[in-house]
Structures are given as structure tokens and as C-alpha cells.
Amino acid sequence: MTTIIANIPNNLKSTVKKFIEEIGGEIISEKEVNKLTVLKDLEEAFLEAKQIRDGKKEGYTLKEILNGK
Questions:
Q1: Which domain of life is it from (predicted)?
Q2: 17 found inside a domain
């Protein structure tokens, strides 16, 4: 099997789900993404990176990232 990650319009969600199931595929994950939420999360990530770069906040080790700090 092949995994495909796709962004589709909300109004086509049920049609695409039905098609995938008809051809023997399965929906592994379903997530609705709000553009404002994504932009806010990116803004916070860049702010944190800047704070780490400026020495105002401690960075993470790879081990901490992999362990879900």
C-alpha cells in the first residue's frame, strides 16, 4: 500500500472518503486545518527560535525532542 497525504476542500471530503473506501483504501487520519491556527503556531515557533538564538531561552537536545519534551 502507499500512503498519500492530501489537502482537499471541505465540500469534497465525503466524496473523496467514499471513493477511497470503494477502491479498497482506508482513511488513516482525518484532520481539519485552520489557516489562522497554522499561522499562529508558526509565529510562536519563530519567536521561540529567536529567543533560543538570543540566549533568552534554552534550546532542546535531539534526545529531548525525540522523547517529546
A1: Bacteria
A2: no
Record the pTM: 0.49
- Does residue 12 lie in a domain region? no
Residue 57 lies in a domain: yes
Query: In this predicted model, what pLDDT tens digit does every residue of 2-60 receive, in sequence order?
Result: 888 888 898 999 999 999 999 999 998 888 878 898 899 999 999 999 999 999 999 98
* Grid coordinates belonging to 39: 499561522
How many domains does the chain fold into?
1
Q: What is the largest CA-CA distance in the chain?
A: 54
